[in-house]
Design goal:
The structure holds two protein chains of two kinds. Chain A is built from six helices and four strands. Chain A is of the alpha+beta class. Chain A has a four-stranded mixed sheet with strand order 1-4-2-3. Mean pLDDT of chain A is 80; it is low at 17-52. By secondary structure, chain B is mainly beta. Chain B folds into two domains: 11-163, Rossmann fold (3-Layer(aba) Sandwich), CATH 3.40.50; 173-429, Neuraminidase. Chain B is built from three helices and 32 strands. In chain B, a hairpin with a 2-residue loop joins strand 5 and strand 6. Residues 1-8 and 17-33 of chain B have low confidence and may be disordered. The chains are: A alpha+beta, B mainly beta. At the A-B interface, helix 2, helix 3, helix 5 and strand 3 of A face strand 16, strand 17, strand 18, strand 20 and strand 28 of B.
């Protein structure tokens, strides 16, 4: 029992260390202007190391599984080369906001994805925009910013591989990953 | 399994005096109606202890000449001269017989083992003038493992004689691929005709490799720490470590031609912007500060300008800028989706990708003039220039998978460089090896 407590405490320390982003010695990308910008990004830059993120698309892909579509919190979708939220997306997000209000301890990581048309690096940036768009909606609707992390996977982790409009539409999404509760 | 990349020393020297010689082809090879030159690469004569290496040399040389687009090979069965007892001078060359066989150029050589090294003497002859091409009379030396590089260097010299510019074949291409199963990893490919070598194997997602100018390290983006960060692979030791000590999310990065600085795309709060860093990671300058996507910085070879992709005009287009932040200039004017710029090491041209009946590769002058689409149909992405500024490699969807495709800057031909399973993407072509 005692060793388990120690293990738990050690685990917590690791989590806290990861969350606060231990400063490293030596010159870094930590000049004043960048540090200020990065703090306003909430959890974005530290990430949470995939803790408790069983439905993270990357974690699933490492295990040879296709990404999850629509977990407890449903995915929202986007038009090509766009990051705007349409009516259906808002409606889904309202449901997701309600759940997050009821489950006040839950944190989420928003994964921004793209279809595979268009180049890899541009799609990384576009996925980031989409995730941020959804985060802004959540925050505007009362969810604390430090409960929401964002990450982009660009076109790298699609749910399907067909060259078809319907498959492409499924891939243009922000997926919610629930982290710890 | 991560393979180490060991470099041998390849010495090349001219044999005899250098006499002025007429070029095999004068004028631009890119003119209309230019036919390929029929060339005979005679099997290299083994003069002692070098049978396998001699055969390998000829095989690699033939492949390079074929790839170059300037030559087509004649069949060995038609050759009037063959080892053993191969005469390596013009006097010993049966030009009339070669003419009858349809050859315009002939390569003959001999290889022997001497003092633990392999020594190859190569000669090239112009059938029309019945002379030897003096500048292509060369001695190449190296270890067994260097034989392909010896052949590449000779092929590069042949191209130099033909066109005035050294060829690109003594170089390497790194790229990302799912050919090993699972997520994208880094692979390396050279022109030796073998299978690509796996360079990373960390079970995570690897993107956007870029060469360090030393040719010994690769900068790449990886999700191995959950968020995209830049990492550095040492090709000699196989060791991977963080490229920069920072918690910033970096989508991609590129080393300056002199290795003193980096351009990176940094993502903060959903927005991506381009920063100039020194090699320790200290910010020298924030180059874009715009709400739109700014991504994919590509250095100009003079190290004073760069190209990038920006959606500031409402849709992604290609721009150039000085690294002091001045001189923003738009370079792409056709179409509503232009991304993925690559700046040629020679010749002041930029290649990029445009969305047009799929995705096509475009080559344009760095001043934005003379845009030419060099692929037709299908999905073609991630162009990267050869060190001579004449050829490009890109990732093309061919027959259900993505493979690396070799072409020249006018799109006169396309040759698939990689086969196998999975998708090969994001190629980066090194400088010529030294």
């Amino acid at each position: 029992m005692k060793s388990r407590t120690i293990a738990l405490v050690a685990g917590l320390v690791v989590v806290l260390a990861l969350m606060t982003g231990c400063p490293r010695r030596g010159s870094t990308l930590s000049d004043a202007d960048l540090d200020a910008a990065s703090r306003s990004g909430g959890l974005t830059e530290q990430g949470l190391g995939g803790l408790g993120s069983g439905s993270s698309s990357l974690e699933r892909a490492k295990r040879g599984l296709a990404p999850e579509e629509d977990g407890i919190l449903r995915d929202v979708h986007f038009a090509y080369d766009d990051h705007a939220l349409d009516g259906e997306a808002s409606s889904i997000l309202d449901d997701n906001v309600a759940w997050l209000r009821e489950n006040g301890q839950a944190k989420v990581e928003l994964e921004g994805h793209c279809d595979d048309r268009g180049t890899i690096e541009y799609n990384l940036a576009l996925g980031a925009r989409r995730a941020k768009m959804v985060k802004d909606y959540l925050v505007t609707n009362g969810i604390a910013a430090n409960r929401v992390a964002t990450i982009s996977y660009g076109e790298e982790l699609p749910v399907c591989h067909d060259e078809s409009d319907s498959c492409w539409a499924r891939n243009r999404r922000v997926h919610f990953v629930i982290l710890g509760q | 399994m991560i393979l180490r990349w060991v470099r041998g020393v390849v010495a090349v020297a001219l044999l005899g005096a250098v006499a002025p010689a007429g070029a095999v082809v004068t004028g631009s090879i890119f003119g209309p109606g230019t036919a390929t030159i029929p060339i005979a690469v005679v099997p290299v004569d083994d003069q002692g202890g070098a049978r396998q290496e001699a055969a390998r040399f000829a095989e690699v040389l033939q492949r390079d000449l074929e790839l170059s687009g300037y030559f087509h090979q004649l069949a060995v069965g038609t050759f009037p001269e063959r080892p053993p007892s191969l005469g390596l001078t013009a006097a010993e060359t049966d030009f009339p017989a070669w003419q009858l066989a349809g050859a315009q150029a002939v390569v003959k050589g001999a290889m022997r083992r001497a003092g633990g090294e392999l020594v190859a003497d190569l000669h090239m002859f112009d059938v029309g003038s019945r002379t030897e091409i003096a500048v292509l009379s060369r001695r190449l030396q190296g270890q067994s493992g260097d034989v392909p590089r010896m052949a590449h260097r000779y092929a590069d010299r042949i191209l130099e004689h033909l066109t005035g510019t050294l060829g690109p074949f003594d170089s390497e291409i790194v790229f990302t691929s799912t050919r090993g199963g699972g997520l994208k990893s880094l692979y390396g490919f050279d022109f030796d005709g073998g299978q690509p070598r796996r360079l990373t194997d960390d079970g995570s997602l690897t993107l956007a490799p870029r060469w360090h100018p030393s040719g010994r390290r690769i900068l790449f983006t990886s999700y191995r720490e959950h968020v995209p960060r830049l990492f550095d692979l040492d090709l000699g030791t196989g060791r991977v470590r963080r490229a920069l000590q920072t918690t910033a999310v970096l989508l991609n990065g590129a080393w300056s031609p002199d290795g003193s600085m980096l351009l990176v795309s940094r993502e903060t709060d959903g927005n991506s912007d381009i920063y100039l860093l020194d090699r320790s990671g200290k910010v020298l300058r924030r180059l874009t500060d715009h709400w739109s996507i700014d991504v994919s910085p590509a250095w100009a070879p003079d190290g004073r300008r760069f190209a990038f992709c920006s959606a500031r005009a409402g849709a992604p287009q290609i721009y150039t800028m000085n690294i002091d932040g001045t001189g923003l200039q738009r370079v792409s004017y056709r179409g509503t989706y232009n991304t993925s710029p690559s700046w040629a090491p020679v010749g002041d041209r930029i290649a990029y990708v445009t969305r047009e009946a799929g995705f096509q590769v475009v080559v344009v002058g760095a001043d934005g003039t003379g845009a030419r689409t060099i692929t037709q149909g299908g999905t073609n992405e991630d162009p990267s220039w050869a060190p001579d500024g004449r050829y490009l490699v890109f990732s093309g969807r061919r027959g259900g998978r993505r493979s690396l495709v070799f072409t020249d800057r006018e799109g006169r031909f396309q040759k698939e460089l990689t086969t196998g399973r999975g998708d090969d993407t994001s190629p980066a072509w090194s400088a010529r090896r030294e």
